[in-house]
């Protein structure tokens, strides 16, 4: 994960590099760079999830044609979890704590959060593969593929909850 942080740090402008040399300001700037790296990672996760979310909607005509109310209910449950996961990821904290906040986020916690977020990339890839599996499923296997996708989404939602614990300094 440190390579993302290092890439953001490398891209800083000359003025920002000069600011890093100012005593007392450097620590502040380092935290801001870590927060920016965290924001970029979460934006990447959203960029990967949104097409999968749209792709899942292409299955709805096949579900409607099946006439199976249980399958339609399962699809609606999966869609609800997917919507919830995207909303939680979009609204997740950037790892910022203000001067007067009760919970302070230190550099070590920011580094842990960045590493944790990088681990979320693999989970998003599993979700995208599970959506592809749903889309390519034969009608008889659609319920099984939707159930597997729901499991991946619920696991990802659990990871997002653990991410909040990392931000608060609670061991994950």
Radius of gyration: 20 Å
Determine the mean pLDDT.
Answer: 79
Main pleated sheet: none
Low-confidence stretches: 96-103
Beta-strand portion reads: under 5%
Percent of residues in helices comes to: over 70%
Structural class: mainly alpha
CA(first)-CA(last) distance = 17 Å
Question: What count of helical segments does DSSP give?
Answer: 7
Order of helices and strands: HHHHHHH
Shape: elongated
The tally of domains stands at: 1
Report the strand count: 0
Q: What is the fold's blueprint, element by element?
A:
Blueprint: H1 2-10, H2 14-21, H3 25-56, H4 60-66, H5 69-91, H6 107-136, H7 142-168
Helix pairs in contact: 1-3, 2-3, 3-5, 3-6, 5-7, 6-7
Description:
With 172 residues, the chain is mainly α. The chain has one domain (2-52, 60-168). It contains 7 helices and no strands. α1 (2-10) packs across α3 (25-56) and α5 (69-91) packs parallel to α7. The chain is elongated. 22% of the residues are buried. Mean pLDDT is 79; it is low at 96-103.
What is the structure about, briefly put?
This protein has 172 residues and is mostly helical. It has helices at residues 2-10, 14-21, 25-56, 60-66, 69-91, 107-136, 142-168.
């Amino acid at each position: 994960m440190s390579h993302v942080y290092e890439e953001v740090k490398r891209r800083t402008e000359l003025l920002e590099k000069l600011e890093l040399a100012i005593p007392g300001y450097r620590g502040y700037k380092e935290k801001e760079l870590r927060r920016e790296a965290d924001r970029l990672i979460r934006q990447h996760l959203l960029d990967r999830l949104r097409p999968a979310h749209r792709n899942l909607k292409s299955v709805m005509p096949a579900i409607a044609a099946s006439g199976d109310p249980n399958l339609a209910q399962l699809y609606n449950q999966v869609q609800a979890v997917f919507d919830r996961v995207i909303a939680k990821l979009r609204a997740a904290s950037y790892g910022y704590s203000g001067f007067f906040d009760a919970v302070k986020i230190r550099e070590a916690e920011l580094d842990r959060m960045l590493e944790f977020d990088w681990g979320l990339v693999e989970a998003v890839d599993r979700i995208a593969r599970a959506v592809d599996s749903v889309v390519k499923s034969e009608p008889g296997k659609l319920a099984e593929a939707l159930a597997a996708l729901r499991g991946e989404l619920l696991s990802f939602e659990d990871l997002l909850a653990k991410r909040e614990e990392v931000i608060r300094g609670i061991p994950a």
